[in-house]
Specification:
Elements (H helix, E strand, L loop, with lengths): L4 E7 L3 H8 L3 E4 L2 E8 L2 E6 L11 E10 L2 E10 L5 H22 L4 H24 L1 H14 L5
Helix pairs in contact: 2-3, 3-4
């Protein structure tokens, strides 16, 4: 929902060649191992988080391939693992609540210190959260997409 990213590519490579290039490979990103396997007529790139010591927010990526004439339409969709989604969604709702509360206080002429404090705290937490997500989860997503794209000869 909030953390799902989709990218579409067109390639002139046959579907079986794409599968042969990707299936069974391992991708190493930030010392985290991701494996590519086939499930339900699509490819999945999943993290091996059992060797991870810290708490990380990791994506599960699905690569779907549809033939359109002589071109192959490749759709790469990354979603956050259900196990990891609780914390980030909770932080987003908390920041939204703080910012909305400050806006409501502004509208009803509430105490300026409280109003601006809530706005600053909510915005500050969200900015730190956004930067951390860009350096973590979204970086994994970008690097997995670039790996899939590097395995193709896109024109």
């Amino acid at each position: 929902m909030f953390f799902t990213r989709t990218q579409r590519y067109l390639a002139s490579i046959p579907k079986e060649d794409i599968k042969n290039r990707l299936i069974g490979n391992h991708v190493k990103i930030h010392d985290m191992d991701f494996e590519v396997y086939e499930k339900d007529h699509s490819l999945r790139i999943i993290p091996h988080a059992e060797q991870s010591e810290g708490i990380k927010t990791l994506p599960i990526t699905r690569v779907e391939m549809n033939e359109e004439g002589n071109k192959m339409n490749i759709v790469v969709t990354s979603k956050m693992r259900k196990l990891d989604s609780g914390g980030p969604i909770l932080i987003m709702f908390f920041c939204t609540f703080l910012i909305l509360a400050s806006l409501i206080l502004m509208a009803v002429d509430g105490e300026p210190k409280m109003t601006y404090s809530l706005l600053g705290i909510g915005s500050g937490i969200f900015i730190v959260f956004f930067i951390r997500m860009q350096m973590g989860y979204f970086d994994y997503v970008r690097k997995i997409r670039s790996y899939v794209k590097s395995q193709m000869d896109f024109a």
